[in-house]
Q: What sequence folds into this?
């Protein structure tokens, strides 16, 4: 049995694994991708680094984390799809599929660093081919080296600026940025700037991106409302209201973004305590400063425990590794405290600007609680109106909704609709998302074939 | 249809796969979902509920809209690597 299992090879997972190995722990890192990086540093050890001039210095920071990981004795299992996580008296067992076979691996402790997913952006037409997330745009650029020809970026948040700049650097700027935040939102956020000044580096980067966008002549429209993607078999235009009139921009691709939210599939499957984060309008597992959750021996770090970005994730991973090492007797409490000081200080500075960003780029009401006709569950094609109707008929929570229809029960298992279901039920019942909660997640976390199940030898024999 | 995506490094060596029964040249070792998009495949499947067309939305294994079958097994195209001889088809039938 290993000392530590780490699920996810993004910044938090890479930094935690490297730190754990330095402290003498036997650690195993698992990830679904072909190599380390997670989504933010996707393909950092394969093709991504060759596009450094487009992607920028922040992306290349991932190469340092990956190099340190590769130089460490950490056992790394890639292309592994973990579909069950089980607690036992001795520790934790992960069950996963790899190359059509299934296997189990056990550890005394578990660090879940499963990162963030894009917040659902349910607007009319968001299920059409040609509509993607801004995160998808970034992944296509990093992993595949491809960019959309005639794209509109729409929504809100700094990631839209980064993607637009990267596209412009490649000579393929977006047709326009259609942004939902308004000057009023920026003014409302202004008082949060002073307490956020420790995050000045991030702020300067943002201002730099905006200046670069202006230099490239990228058109920006702000305070846009009533966004809808037009098209029958494929996106053909984005329609919106701005400056008092309805406008349309013809395009082949629409990339949507309203920030990212913690990916809670694994932490919810484990029935860890979760809390509602009112400013981020999302749920996250309850944890202390070291990432210790409500379950002994199970830790979280990085964006999966609340959105703070890649730099913060790496330091949160290091802090968790230090605490886990101390809990297993590899480090004295005094040494843990001393070695935690520097990463904790950096983490606090990285988090300082979040309140400003969350307030300056708020999620529009129409995205949180869409109009009745809008599809909210992409898999089962269920509209906001159906959810409200089932709520009025007595569905008090997301689990009861399943008895009325099948929202959250399709292939994605609620990844694309869970937050919307909760927001809609909270609205219908005049309560808060915190009271409504999220639906249950049950194994398998990802689909598994009968062949993979049949190949499983229980125990501790990694593939 | 004109591909909606441009490949920034088109010189990568290609291998032949089958998409919905027809041969297609895709970069060896590339991400399957990205490679299909770059090859001009605009629709990956039709939904079992209403028959609506779908294509990759999240590219990170979360949305399941890029579902295809590979040798008969339903897979997320964004989690598969291109290799010679892959037999790929739209999930849920070949009328996509």
A:
């Amino acid at each position: 049995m290993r000392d530590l299992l780490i699920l996810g090879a993004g910044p938090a997972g890479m930094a935690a694994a490297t730190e754990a190995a330095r402290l003498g722990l036997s650690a195993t890192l698992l990830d679904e991708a072909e190599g380390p990086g997670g989504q933010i540093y996707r393909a950092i050890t394969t093709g991504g680094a060759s596009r450094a001039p487009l992607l920028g210095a922040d992306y290349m920071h991932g190469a340092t984390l990956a190099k340190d990981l590769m130089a460490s004795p950490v056992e790394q299992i890639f292309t592994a799809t973990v579909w069950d996580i089980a607690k036992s008296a001795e520790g934790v067992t992960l069950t996963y599929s790899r190359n059509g076979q299934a296997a189990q691996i056990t550890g005394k402790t578990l660090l879940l660093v499963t990162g963030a997913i894009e917040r659902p952006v349910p607007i009319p037409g968001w299920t059409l081919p040609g509509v993607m997330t801004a995160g998808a745009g970034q992944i296509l650029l990093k992993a595949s080296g491809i960019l959309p020809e005639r794209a509109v970026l729409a929504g809100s948040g700094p990631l839209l600026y980064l993607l637009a700049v990267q596209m412009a650097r490649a000579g393929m700027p977006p047709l326009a940025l259609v942004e939902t935040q308004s000057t009023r939102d920026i003014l409302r956020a202004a008082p949060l700037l002073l307490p956020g000044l420790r995050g000045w580096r991030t702020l300067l980067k943002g201002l730099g991106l905006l200046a670069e966008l202006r230099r490239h002549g990228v058109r920006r429209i702000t305070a846009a409302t009533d966004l809808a993607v037009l098209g029958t078999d494929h996106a053909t235009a984005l329609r919106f209201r701005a400056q008092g009139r309805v406008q349309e921009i013809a395009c082949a691709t629409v990339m949507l973004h309203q920030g990212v939210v913690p990916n809670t599939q694994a932490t919810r499957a484990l029935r860890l305590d979760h809390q509602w984060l009112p400013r981020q309008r999302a749920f996250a597992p309850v944890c202390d400063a070291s990432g210790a959750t409500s379950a002994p021996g199970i830790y979280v770090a990085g964006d999966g425990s609340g959105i703070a970005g890649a730099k913060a994730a790496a330091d949160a991973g290091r802090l968790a590794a230090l605490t886990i090492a101390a809990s297993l007797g590899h480090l004295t409490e005094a040494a843990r405290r001393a070695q935690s000081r520097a990463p904790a200080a950096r983490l606090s500075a990285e988090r300082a600007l979040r309140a400003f960003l969350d307030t300056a780029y708020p999620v529009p009401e129409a995205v949180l609680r869409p109009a009745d006709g809008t599809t909210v569950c992409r898999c089962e094609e269920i509209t906001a109106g159906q959810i409200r109707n089932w709520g009025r008929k007595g569905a008090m929570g997301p689990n009861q909704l399943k008895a009325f229809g099948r929202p959250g029960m399709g292939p994605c298992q609620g990844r694309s609709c869970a937050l919307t279901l909760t927001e809609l039920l909270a609205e219908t019942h005049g309560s808060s998302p915190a009271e409504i909660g999220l639906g249950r997640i049950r194994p398998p976390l990802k689909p598994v074939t009968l062949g993979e199940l049949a190949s499983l030898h229980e125990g501790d024999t990694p593939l | 249809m004109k591909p909606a995506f441009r490949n920034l490094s088109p010189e990568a060596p290609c291998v032949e796969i089958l998409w919905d029964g027809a041969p297609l040249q895709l970069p060896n070792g590339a991400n399957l979902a990205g490679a299909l998009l770059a090859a001009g495949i605009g629709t990956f499947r039709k939904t079992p509920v209403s028959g609506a067309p779908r294509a990759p939305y999240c590219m990170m294994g979360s949305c399941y809209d890029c579902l295809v079958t590979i040798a008969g097994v339903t897979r997320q195209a964004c989690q598969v690597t291109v290799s010679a001889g892959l037999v790929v088809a739209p999930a849920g039938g070949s009328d996509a």
In short: Chain A touches chain B through 48 residues (CB under 8 Å). Chain A has a mean pLDDT of 96. Residues 288 and 351 of chain A are 15 Å apart (CA to CA). DSSP finds 17 helices and 22 strands in chain A.
